[in-house]
Write a structure and sequence with these properties.
alpha+beta; two-stranded antiparallel ribbon; 173 residues; single chain
Length: 173
């Protein structure tokens, strides 16, 4: 899937010394095409000669791993944080990243690939550090959703991934 869904076909995604081309892609199996809601090629920035790809997926939310909305006793509301880049602050952001490079490198060096739990903890620490550094330069918006029990499906043990794929194909025909 090249950057053409909800965008213009053949938008340039790379600008280098030898010209412009369409070389950036989102690679997903055909069975996942229905969950891709948007794939947009963003404008070029000074940070890269590649255009950023904006991807929005439509996924069913796992209620156990979602953040409950504070103040809701039943845990029926969910929240999602979205961050928007402020292009006017890019120089200050760059300086802040350079000033905190030692802290970033320390977190990066501590990432442990040996066991999944250690990796998850290391990655969470790295992400938290980056979030703390970048927070002043991003506009945060929280969307609150009321969960719907109808979105949660308790499949039978025999209803495996192959059955789901066949069902999806049947529905799409």
């Amino acid at each position: 899937m090249a950057g053409i869904k909800n965008g213009f076909a053949n938008d340039f995604t790379f600008c280098g010394a030898n010209g412009m081309s369409v070389i950036d892609y989102l690679l997903v199996p055909v069975s996942l095409f229905p969950i891709v809601r948007q794939l947009i090629v963003s404008n070029f920035t000074t940070f890269s000669d590649h255009a950023f790809l904006h991807i929005q997926l439509s996924l069913l939310c796992n209620k156990q791993n979602s953040t409950p909305f504070p103040g809701d006793e039943n845990g029926e509301k969910l929240s999602q944080d979205k961050f928007k880049w402020n292009d006017e602050l890019k120089e200050q952001c760059r300086d802040c990243l350079l000033n905190n490079m030692e802290k970033i490198n320390l977190c990066r060096e501590r990432i442990d690939f040996d066991r999944q739990q250690l990796f998850d903890n290391s990655l969470a620490e790295f992400t938290s550090t980056l979030n703390d550094i970048m927070a002043p330069f991003l506009k945060k918006r929280t969307n609150n959703y009321k969960s719907c029990r109808s979105n949660i499906c308790d499949d039978k043990p025999w209803f495996n991934a192959q059955c789901k794929d066949l069902h999806r194909r049947y529905i799409n025909c």
